[in-house]
Amino acid sequence: MDGKIHSFEVERGDGSDRIDALVSKRLPFLSRSRVQSLVRDGRVHVNEKTVKNSYRPKSGDRIQVWVPDAVPLEILPVDLPLDVLYEDENCLVINKPPGLVVHPAPGHRNDTLVNALLHHVSGLSGIGGVLRPGIVHRLDKDTSGALLVAKNDTSHLALSMLFREGRMRKTYLALVGGRLPSMEGVVDLPVGRHPTQRKKMSVVSKRGRRALTSYRVDRYYERTDVSLLEVRIHTGRTHQIRVHMAQLGTPVLGDALYGGGRRTEKLLVRSGIEVERQLLHASRLEWTDPIKGVDRCVEAPLPEDMASILEDLDGFEES
To answer: N or C: which end of the chain has fewer CB within 10 A?
Structure first.
């Protein structure tokens, strides 16, 4: 069978995860959906036999995974502007603007971050798949800020492991509607797919996974009932900050999916401040370079829209 072979033995501490979940956990550069596809294609063997995604490995099982070689990319490199905050031979950090889609999807085939990266970097890491070359983690379309990209397969695997093991420090700035229960706090609630609304995530999902978010209130704007937060996520669940803030009753402003849109409409009437997207910005990434052993810290300056809104909030508060 073609491709690179990744082998490991199931240990007692691996628990009773399904085969797709376990492989994704042990090989973090593979998403669970990608593993499921590999299992269906017969590329995942347990003790030299093919299995179904529902199989639950036992201690001592020998697992082999054949990851296909990267195929020639059908995505076009496009000369789009990139705000590069940091770059070396193994990775780079981009300051993603709001509104930029990370990887190709229906309606966005040639205007994504991936198109720009293919123009900027030759030989981009291919183990993320044809549609996600070099992409180690993601930011929502309307979330701005620091996004780390792997240039080669070695760094992709090493950086993915940092994210999986919680050794990548991710800090965000968020504007939320309302006042938090305390100046500092921790939200420890599982996040999973919403039981009835498939586009949403929820803390009441039957298959929610642990999600840990800590926050610190940087400033509370009393006249507009808005809080500026510094938020750290210690896990990487989809929409984690947005879901946790909504659960606290302080949704991210402009986030129509989780209630921030309705809160924003009320604030517009009171303050005249325009909000056109969820006001969430990945402000800082900190990690220890897994290849060079050097500590890295990259900060992303606020985009114009969020900086302007903060200036308006200051002015409205003082008027």
So the answer is: C
